[in-house]
Amino acid sequence: MSGERRTRVIRTDHLARVEGEGAMYVRLNGDVVEEVKLRIYEPPRFFEALLRGRAFTEAPDITARICGICPVAYQMSAVRAMEDACGVAIEEGPLRDLRRLLYCGEWIESHTLHVYMLHAPDFLGYAGAVEMAREHRGIVEQGLQMKKAGNALLALVGGREVHPINVRVGGFYRVPTQAQLRTLRDPLQQALETALATVRWAAALPFPDVECSPELLALRDPDGYPIDRGRIVSDRGLEFAPSEFDAHVQEEHVEYSNALHARLVGRGTYLTGPLARYALASRQLRAPAARAAREAGLQDVCRNPFQSIVVRAVELVQACDEALALIDAYVEPDAPAVTVTPRRAVGHGATEAPRGLLYHRYEIDEDGTILDASIVPPTSQNQLAIEEDLRAVVQGGLELSDEQLSLRCEQSIRNHDPCISCATHFLTLTVERV
Amino acid sequence: MSAAPMQTLAVWKFSSCDGCQLSLLDCEDELLLLADRLQISYFLEATSAQVKGPYDISIVEGSITTPHDAQRIHEVRASSRALICIGACATAGGIQALRNFGDVEQFTRVVYATPDYISTLATSTPISAHVPVDFELNGCPINKHQLLEVIAAHLARRRPRVRAHSVCVECKRRGTVCVMVASGTPCLGPVTHAGCGAICPAYDRGCYGCYGPMETPNTPAMSARMAQLGSEEVDLVRIYRTYNAGARAFREAGEAHEAPGAGAREAGEP
Question: Per the CB 3.0–4.6 Å rule, which of A117, A181, A218, B201 could disulfide with A129?
Answer without folding.
Answer: A117
